[in-house]
């Protein structure tokens, strides 16, 4: 088995960063400021989870759910990731 020398270990973080995309995180201007894409997707996910919570309470579906917190967190995460893929996906 090949062991890395301390000098090689110093260069390991540089080698890992070399695989990163040179374009950086997606940003877009909004009201005069540049927002990172992940922040806007997270806010959309939170708003979707809150909106679904209100809709489920009004329709009575919320009373049937057994793990409410996990359900709404999962729905918010799915919404945020869907927005990310639609807006910044390949």
TrEMBL record:
Keywords: Cell membrane, Lipoprotein, Membrane, Palmitate, Signal, Transmembrane, Transmembrane helix
InterPro entries assigned to the protein according to its UniProt record, in alphabetical order: YtcA (IPR031381)
Pfam families registered for this protein in UniProt: Ytca
Membrane disposition: Multi-pass membrane protein
Cellular component, GO, one term: membrane
Compartments where found: Membrane
Main localization category: membrane
Top-level taxonomic group: Bacteria
Family: Belongs to the YtcA family.
Name used for this protein in its record: Uncharacterized protein YtcA
Organism (species): Neoasaia chiangmaiensis
């Amino acid at each position: 088995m090949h062991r890395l020398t301390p000098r090689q270990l110093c260069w390991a973080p540089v080698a890992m960063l070399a695989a990163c995309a040179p374009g950086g995180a997606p940003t877009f201007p909004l009201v005069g400021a540049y927002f990172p894409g992940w922040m806007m997707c997270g806010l959309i996910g939170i708003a979707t989870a809150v909106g679904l919570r209100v809709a489920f309470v009004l329709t009575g579906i919320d009373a049937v759910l057994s793990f409410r917190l996990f359900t709404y967190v999962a729905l918010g995460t799915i919404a945020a990731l869907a927005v990310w893929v639609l807006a910044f996906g390949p």
